[in-house]
Amino acid sequence: MLTQKPIAFSGIQPSGIIHIGNYLGSIKNWLELQDRYQCIFCLVDYHSITVRQTPAELRKNTEGLLKLYLACGIDPKKSIIFIQSQVPAHTELAWILNTITYLGELKRMTQFKDKATRYKENVNVGLFDYPVLMAADILLYQTNVVPVGQDQLQHVELARTLAHRFNQLYGETFTIPQPLIGKGAKIMGLDDPTKKMSKSAKNPGNYIALTDDVETIRKKIARAVTDSGYEVKLSPDKPAISNLLTIYHLLSNIPIKDLEKKYTDKGYAKLKKDLAEVIINFLKPIQEKIKTLDQKTTNQILAAGTRKAQTLSQLTLNRVKEKMGLI
Predict the structure, then answer these.
(1) Which of 78, 199, 289, 321 is labelled catalytic?
(2) Is the pLDDT of residue 93 over 90?
């Protein structure tokens, strides 16, 4: 192994828009994990192609996501960063795990049911088998913890089940991973505060992308839905204003109680105007860092991450093959 720290594995699909909800819900937590764990961050492009992708957009999104990771503070000196399709052991182990995965286990996956409904014209085998590839992603690195949200718990549980099953059939081989439920905030859509901010939202007014320019941010916040009345207060009956206050608090570190006092009798317009500037100032260093990351730099980081990922994954894959009698 390359480290004595416990291993944390996380993957993100290079599709859609990365927004402040992604940052506050996931990426911010990953930055904190880097000092306690050997973090492995994988751009899971094989998972992305279970839904139709435009090749040029997929390449652009993958390269853009890598730069965003780095600009947000993912440190290649502390963490391993690589692209899934550049490490063949992922698909090799997925095929092997297919042979010990039961059809009924995959049929129970709620995300497959959801995506099969949303993408009726392309209900492919990869979409159905997605959880097995995710299990391979995790188990290849003898992962101790997997930072996930509630919507991915079922997939981590399958990885745990397959690890136990393989170990029982062939002897101790895989570390049994534990889900690590993130402490990140749940950021809701600017156009609908009853639903999470989503990178696949059809309405760009739903989110603030990490790469949005100044005027776009101001317009989106100005157009964000609000609640009835004028009181700026965190309350269940004020989901829209509560969401804006949460974003303001998390990006400025100003306690919500102080924000409520600050905007007493000032109304929603003033809150929105100031929040837009808070977001702009928060994103400015991230956007400036992106501009400094040239192709040579990112290629070097990817090459180093890929070598480390290949070393770790091949150790596990060789052990798996040996246990199963594969020559």
Answers:
(1) 199
(2) yes
